[in-house]
Amino acid sequence: MDRSVDVPLWRPVRGGNAFEITVARLAQTIRLGMVAVGDQLPPERELAERLSVSRVTLREAIAALRDAGYLETRRGRSGGTFVVYRDAPDGPSTGDAATIAREMGDTLHDALDFRRVVEPGAAELAATRTLAASDRAHLSACLAAAADRNVPTRRVADSRLHLAIAAASGSPSLAAAVADVQVTVDRLLAAIPVIARNLEHSDLQHKRIVEAILSGDPRTARSAMEEHCDGTAELLRGLLG
Fold it and tell me: What pLDDT, on a 0 to 100 scale, did the predictor assign at position 147?
């Protein structure tokens, strides 16, 4: 993939559970669409260096995700490890989403509260940065993609936009925190009914956020992201109870 360097989850693994953390990082990257179906993972040596794990640990993690249906390894000149994971095309029903929410319990509310803190902060910080032309173009491209009305691809594009905003903050720790909370929120948003009006609101909010970042307006970037996070939280709490 062309922008693999921007994947915030591919950061050094810390702690004693290197295998489990590596599996989680790769799976989250795939589920968030940062590496799309059909895309190839970076070479083993490069990915192991980024994650700061041994190549043995990386191979074991890839094998586990291969067994789980996320990855496929192909041999030969054009071989490598490719993403094959796909969600169910229609997604789960609202009842499934309610079940997920009940299972999460207070974790859901904690995730929404945490998002309300970190994502506006990331947008505000991004607006204070002097972004390279390539980063500005990437944000604009992610914004355009997130306006897609095809639900499965929209969810992926939406997550990519939020991760691009977090990456633009220049803080790897902040970008990683946004990626973690996006996994939780995305799982539930993918399971609730599509509301056209909500999509329109979301598109307008996304546009305000990105325009504020590109124009160097941190106050507007923060307030627009706060409004966006509040809208998502209200939608989830209203539909899931």
Answer: 92
CA–CA distance, 176 with 198 (Å, rounded to integer): 27
Please compute Rg for the chain using Cα positions: 18
Report the alpha-carbon distance of residue 106 to residue 104 in Å, rounded. Answer: 6
E strand residue ranges, the chain: 71-74, 80-83
Q: Which residue has the tokens 């490598």?
A: 80
pTM of the model: 0.71
Residue type, 181: V
DSSP 8-class letter at 42: P
Buried b (16+ CB within 10 A) or exposed e, 179-202: bbbbbbbbbbbbbbeeeeebbeeb
Per-residue pLDDT tens digits for 99-110: 777 777 778 888
Residues 6+ apart with CB under 8 A from 78: none
8 A C-beta contact, residue 3 and residue 138: yes
pLDDT tens per residue across span 117-145: 999 999 999 999 999 999 999 999 999 99
Q: Between vectors from CA 131 to CA 127 and to CA 133, what angle results, nearest 5°?
A: 135
Q: Structure tokens of 164?
A: 């691009």
